[in-house]
């Protein structure tokens, strides 16, 4: 019998099974699989970049598409564009997870990356509101790799480096969620921001929001090329006729000595899995709503309680957060996780996020360099706390199921998360528009109400990290 750090479906290796080949490689390997980890990071990064890249320029894009009749209504229409991506993902994520468990992780990763290249580019070429919504919906519906790649990140290495694999996948997720808006903020409307370079190019005058989408699609092209060097990790235990007799003999011996294989557990009845997914969904809803609200709040006029930031200043905030977040995830998170564990670490981060969120609307009383420093530091801290929580939920989800169910489990996770994230932008946009109309209210006027609601959601997530809400797998 040959052991494996990746929990193979059978206790022998099959030469024609890509999962067994990878398990044997992992067992023999002593070092970190740098090449595989790099491409996992790049694919995840390229896939998540489009999720939030539009938020810094969405306010201006809705304005230019002339769908909103009043300035106060821009946030309302912006919310539905953000929600369309997550709605598309919610409808198909479980299907993509099942496909990944049946046909392999790699085909799903390739299809998802191609989807980013095509539909993210088309979104930048949107000529009306409905084209923007449809392209975002298809971008979410046809890109199902985020769930399977989380399982892939721990299957491509031995058990010793699984925490690092999860951390890298999560850091790519977190960095992309802040670098996407940075790219969107800096590169949107290039003919206005960089007239010496882009004003003579008609394409960028006709489509002022195409350049950031094009840049992200080119990153996705690089990720697609990287898929060539990635091995498959799914256990197929193939049907090569030359080994059928060996397989039959092995199965017969196993049944005599070990009895029949246990049936697969119903994932929906796996409370440790479902409770960790719900925890993930709560914090994902809060994080998505914050990302949209922060951009709308920062760019709205000061008379409506905003900061009157141009899109490039909003992008700068995300750049600072992105680079700092990458360093924290690579050099600090794994050590903190070993010291405290994912649950305690998530509780600490959630508790710190509550007062931090409630403090954002009071930054409007600042100005000049002090305002810039405080906004950047607060945004950086909020993103670090959010991604640290997400890391913990990833670990809890993957530890709650065996290897052959991780694709489906992550598909369920991404489906549920996408439903919550589909609600988040639409609800956040509607609440933001409502809050801007109540600047003189006696209780939590203006944007104070928006950030108060975000704090309440964070508190609900903190409560969920305790028993009996959060279940843990039996050891």
UniProtKB/TrEMBL annotation:
What does the record say about its membrane topology?
Answer: Multi-pass membrane protein
Record domain Major facilitator superfamily (MFS) profile: where? 36-473
PANTHER family from the entry?
MAJOR FACILITATOR SUPERFAMILY (MFS) PROFILE DOMAIN-CONTAINING PROTEIN, MAJOR FACILITATOR SUPERFAMILY DOMAIN-CONTAINING PROTEIN 10
Task: Specify the domain of life of the species encoding this protein.
Answer: Eukaryota
Q: Which residues form the signal peptide?
A: none
What is the predominant subcellular site recorded for this chain?
membrane
Pfam families reported for this sequence:
MFS_1 (PF07690)
Keyword Transmembrane helix belongs to the record: yes
Put simply, this protein is called Zinc induced facilitator-like 1
Its subcellular locations are: Membrane
**Tell me, what is one Gene Ontology molecular-function annotation carried by this entry?**
transmembrane transporter activity
Q: Which PROSITE patterns match?
A: MFS
CDD domains in the record, alphabetically?
A: MFS_SLC46_TetA_like (cd17330)
Q: Which organism is it from?
A: Rhynchospora pubera
Could you tell me the keywords of this UniProt record? Answer: Membrane, Transmembrane, Transmembrane helix, Transport
Q: Where are the transmembrane segments?
A: 38-62, 74-96, 108-127, 133-152, 164-187, 207-231, 277-297, 317-336, 343-364, 370-396, 408-434, 449-470
Which SUPFAM superfamilies has this protein been placed in? MFS general substrate transporter
Q: Name one GO cellular component term.
A: membrane
């Amino acid at each position: 019998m040959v052991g494996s750090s990746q929990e193979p479906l059978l206790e022998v290796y099959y030469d024609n099974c890509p999962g067994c080949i990878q398990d044997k490689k992992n067992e023999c390997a002593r070092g970190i699989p740098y090449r595989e980890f790099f491409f996992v990071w790049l694919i995840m990064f390229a896939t998540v970049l489009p999720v939030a890249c539009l938020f810094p320029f969405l306010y201006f894009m809705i304005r230019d598409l002339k769908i909103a009749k009043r300035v106060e209504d821009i946030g309302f229409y912006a919310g539905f564009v953000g929600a369309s991506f997550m709605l598309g993902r919610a409808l198909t994520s479980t299907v993509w997870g099942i496909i990944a468990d049946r046909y392999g992780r790699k085909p799903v990763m390739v299809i998802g990356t191609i989807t980013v290249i095509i539909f993210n580019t088309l979104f930048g070429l949107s000529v009306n509101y409905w084209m923007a919504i449809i392209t975002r919906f298809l971008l979410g519906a046809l890109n199902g790799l985020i769930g399977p790649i989380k399982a892939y990140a721990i299957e491509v290495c031995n058990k010793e480096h699984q925490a690092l694999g999860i951390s890298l996948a999560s850091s790519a997720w977190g960095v992309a969620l802040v670098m996407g808006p940075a790219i969107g903020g800096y590169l949107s409307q290039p003919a206005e921001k960089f007239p010496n370079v882009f004003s003579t190019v008609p394409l960028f005058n006709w489509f002022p929001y195409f350049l950031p989408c094009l840049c992200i699609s080119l990153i996705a092209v690089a990720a697609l090329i990287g898929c060539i060097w990635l091995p498959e990790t799914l256990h197929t235990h193939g049907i090569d006729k030359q080994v059928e007799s060996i397989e039959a003999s092995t199965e017969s011996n196993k049944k005599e000595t070990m009895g029949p294989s246990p049936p697969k557990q119903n994932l929906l009845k796996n409370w440790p899995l479902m409770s960790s997914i719900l925890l993930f969904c709560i914090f994902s809803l809060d994080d998505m709503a914050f990302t949209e609200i922060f951009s709308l709040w920062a760019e709205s006029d000061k008379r409506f309680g905003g900061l009157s930031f141009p899109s490039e200043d909003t992008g700068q905030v995300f750049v600072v957060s992105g680079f700092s977040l990458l360093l924290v995830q690579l050099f600090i998170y794994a050590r903190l996780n070993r010291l405290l564990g994912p649950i305690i670490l998530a509780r600490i981060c959630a508790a710190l996020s509550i007062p931090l969120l409630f403090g954002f609307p009071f930054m409007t009383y600042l100005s000049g360099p002090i305002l810039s420093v405080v906004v950047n530091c607060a945004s950086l801290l909020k993103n670090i706390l959010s991604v640290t929580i997400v890391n913990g939920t990833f670990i809890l989800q993957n530890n709650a199921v065996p290897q052959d169910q991780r694709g489906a489990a992550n598909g369920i996770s991404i489906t549920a998360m996408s439903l919550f994230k589909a609600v988040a932008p639409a609800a956040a946009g509607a609440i933001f528009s409502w809050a801007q109309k109540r600047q003189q209210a006696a209780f939590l006027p203006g944007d104070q109400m928006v950030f108060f609601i975000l704090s309440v959601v964070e508190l609900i997530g903190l409560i969920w990290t305790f028993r009996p809400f959060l279940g843990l797998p039996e050891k």
